[in-house]
C-alpha cells in the first residue's frame, strides 16, 4: 500500500498548537512510510473562511518544515466535482431532496426534546417503497439528504481508540447539499478522501462523531475505507480544550515570541506520542521512530514551562552563527545595529546558554551595542572603591600585553587577584561597572573578548 495522509484544516481562525499536532502526525506517518502528505483547505464555510487564515496555516507548516507532496487543495475549487457526485447519488437512489423548512425542522426537534428523545430529522421526505411523500411546496428550496442505512451499526478499528461501534439508529439522514447547492462538510470530506486516495485519516477526536456518517457515505459510493486514527484532545494549562477562546497562542505568536521551530516540533511530537524516555530529538529521529501504535489514548496537556525548557535546549545547542541570523530581526526591533560593534555571532554565543528565547538573547545583546558610558566623578567614586584602583591599573596593563582570549583574560584576573589578595567580586564588579554602568553581565573573561580589547582598554582607562 502506498501511504497517503492529509491535513485538512478549516481556515476559520488562527492555527494553534493543537491544530498543528493534527498536521505533524500525518506528516510524520507519511514520511516514515515514504508516502505522500497532502494539505487540503476545507473552505466551504464561506462566511467564516478567510485568506489570512489560509496564509497562517501555510506559513506555520513551512516554518515547522512540514513539507507537502500535494496542495494546498481548496474545496471551493472542487464544487463542480461535489455537485456531480450529488447528482450521481440522486440518480442512484442514495440521496433525496428534502423540502422540510427550517421552521418545521425546529418544531420537530423542540417536540423531541420535550419528549426526551434525541433531536433528529424524522425522515418525512425519505422515499421508501409504498410511502406517499407530501406535496412538494413551491416556496421551499430543498436540501439534499443522504439515505443513511437503517438498522445495524457502523464499526471500525480505530488505530488510537480501538474498536468503535455506532448504531445507525443514532444517525439521521445527513444533509449533503444546502438549498443553494453548496455541499456540506461531511460529504466533501468523503469525496476528497476518495478522490485523493487517502489511506490513513489521522485527526483530532472531535471528529469521532463525524466518522460513522463519513464511513456510510464512503461505502455507498463504493470506496475503500481508510484507516482512522483519532488523536486525544490537547488541553490548555487550565485543563480546558485548547482554543483561541481559552487563550491558545497562534503559530505566529510563538514566532514573534522567539521560539525555534525545532523546539515547537519536538514539543508537539510529545503531545500524545512517545519513544521510550526520549525528550529531546531531531525531526529526522522523530520521523524514523514514528508509528501509530505509539500514540497515546489520554488527553495531552499543554505545558508552557516544558515548551520553554525545550526551546532553551535547542538555543543552547544551536550553531551560534545560525542562531545570530535568527536573532537579528529581534535585535533590530530593539534598535540594535548588529553590523556596527562587536561581532554579533560572538555576542549570541556568549548569551545563548542562559536564554530561553531569541528575544532574551536580543535583550541581553543590547548591552554590547550601547555607547560607552560617560561616568561622572561621583558615580566612579560610588562604584569603584579607591582601594581597588591599584588592582584595576595592574589589570589594564596586563590586558594591554595579553592575547585577546578567554583563557588569557582568565589567567590575568587570577594573577591580579592573587597579587592584591582580593576576591573575584571585588575586582569584577568595578570592571563591569566601568564597561557597562551595570554589575550584571555574563562571565567577565568572555565579556572582554566579545567587547574587544581596544574598547575594553578605552572604557577602563576612563575610570582610573
Biggest sheet layout: 3 strands, parallel
Number of helices: 19
Total domain modules: 4
| CATH C-level category of the largest domain | Alpha Beta
Give me the Rg, rounded.
Answer: 32 Å
State the end-to-end CA separation.
78 Å
Number of strands: 12
Question: What structural class results from the helix and strand content?
Answer: alpha/beta
Instruction: Give the percentage of residues in beta strands.
Output: 5-15%
The fold-level CATH name of the largest domain is Rossmann fold
Low-pLDDT runs: none
Strand order of the largest sheet: 1-2-3
Which bin fits the share of residues in helices? 40-55%
User: What would CATH call the homologous superfamily of the largest domain?
Assistant: HUPs
Give the overall shape, derived from the CA principal axes. elongated
What is the correct CATH architecture of the largest domain?
Answer: 3-Layer(aba) Sandwich
Q: Roughly what is the average pLDDT, rounded to an integer?
A: 93
Layout of helices and strands, plus pairs?
Layout: E1 4-7, H1 17-32, E2 36-41, H2 51-64, E3 70-74, H3 79-91, E4 95-98, H4 102-114, E5 143-146, E6 153-158, E7 162-167, E8 175-177, H5 185-195, E9 200-204, H6 211-220, E10 227-231, E11 234-235, H7 251-256, H8 261-269, H9 283-289, E12 300-301, H10 304-316, H11 320-333, H12 344-351, H13 358-365, H14 377-383, H15 389-401, H16 406-420, H17 424-436, H18 444-451, H19 453-461
Amino acid at each position: 500500500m502506498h501511504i497517503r495522509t492529509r491535513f485538512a484544516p478549516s481556515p476559520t481562525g488562527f492555527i494553534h498548537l493543537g491544530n498543528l499536532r493534527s498536521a505533524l502526525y500525518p506528516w510524520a506517518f507519511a514520511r516514515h512510510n515514504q508516502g505522500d502528505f497532502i494539505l487540503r483547505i476545507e473552505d466551504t464555510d464561506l462566511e467564516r473562511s478567510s485568506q489570512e487564515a489560509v496564509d497562517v496555516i501555510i506559513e506555520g507548516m513551512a516554518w515547522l518544515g512540514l513539507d507537502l507532496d500535494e496542495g494546498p487543495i481548496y474545496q471551493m475549487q472542487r464544487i463542480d466535482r461535489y455537485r456531480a457526485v450529488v447528482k450521481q447519488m440522486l440518480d442512484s437512489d442514495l440521496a433525496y431532496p428534502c423540502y422540510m423548512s427550517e421552521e418545521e425542522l425546529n418544531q420537530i426537534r423542540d417536540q423531541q426534546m420535550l419528549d426526551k428523545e434525541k433531536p433528529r430529522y424524522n425522515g418525512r421526505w425519505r422515499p421508501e417503497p409504498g410511502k406517499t411523500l407530501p406535496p412538494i411546496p413551491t416556496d421551499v428550496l430543498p436540501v439534499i439528504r443522504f439515505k443513511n442505512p437503517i438498522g445495524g451499526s457502523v464499526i471500525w478499528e480505530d488505530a488510537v481508540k480501538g474498536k468503535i461501534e455506532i448504531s445507525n439508529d443514532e444517525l439521521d439522514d445527513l444533509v449533503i447539499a444546502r438549498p443553494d447547492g453548496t455541499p456540506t462538510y461531511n460529504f466533501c470530506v468523503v469525496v476528497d478522501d476518495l478522490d485523493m486516495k487517502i489511506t490513513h485519516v489521522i485527526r483530532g477526536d472531535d471528529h469521532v462523531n463525524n466518522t460513522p456518517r463519513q464511513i456510510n457515505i464512503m461505502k455507498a459510493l463504493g470506496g475503500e475505507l481508510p484507516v482512522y486514527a483519532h488523536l486525544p484532545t490537547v488541553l490548555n494549562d487550565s485543563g480546558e480544550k485548547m482554543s483561541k477562546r481559552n487563550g491558545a497562542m497562534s503559530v505566529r505568536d510563538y514566532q514573534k515570541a522567539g521560539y525555534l521551530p525545532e523546539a515547537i516540533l519536538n514539543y508537539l511530537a510529545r503531545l500524545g506520542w512517545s519513544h521510550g524516555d526520549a525528550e529531546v530529538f531531531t525531526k529526522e529521529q522523530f520521523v524514523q521512530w514514528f508509528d501509530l501504535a505509539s500514540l497515546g489514548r489520554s488527553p495531552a496537556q499543554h505545558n508552557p514551562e516544558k515548551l520553554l525548557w525545550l526551546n532553551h535546549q535547542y538555543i543552547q545547542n544551536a550553531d551560534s552563527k545560525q542562531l545570530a541570523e535568527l536573532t537579528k530581526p529581534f535585535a533590530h526591533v530593539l534598535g540594535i545595529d548588529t553590523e556596527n560593534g562587536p561581532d554579533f555571532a560572538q555576542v549570541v554565543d556568549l548569551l545563548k546558554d542562559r536564554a530561553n528565547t531569541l528575544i532574551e538573547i536580543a535583550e541581553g545583546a543590547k548591552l554590547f551595542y550601547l555607547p560607552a558610558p560617560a561616568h561622572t566623578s561621583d558615580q566612579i567614586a560610588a562604584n569603584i572603591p579607591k582601594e581597588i584602583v591599584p588592582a584595576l591599573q595592574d589589570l589594564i596593563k596586563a590586558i594591554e600585553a595579553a592575547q585577546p582570549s578567554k583563557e588569557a583574560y582568565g589567567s590575568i584576573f587570577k594573577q591580579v587577584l592573587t597579587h592584591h589578595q582580593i576576591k573575584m567580586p571585588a575586582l569584577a564588579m568595578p570592571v563591569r561597572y566601568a564597561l557597562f554602568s551595570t554589575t550584571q553581565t555574563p562571565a567577565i573573561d568572555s565579556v572582554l573578548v566579545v567587547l574587544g580589547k581596544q574598547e575594553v582598554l578605552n572604557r577602563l582607562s576612563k575610570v582610573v
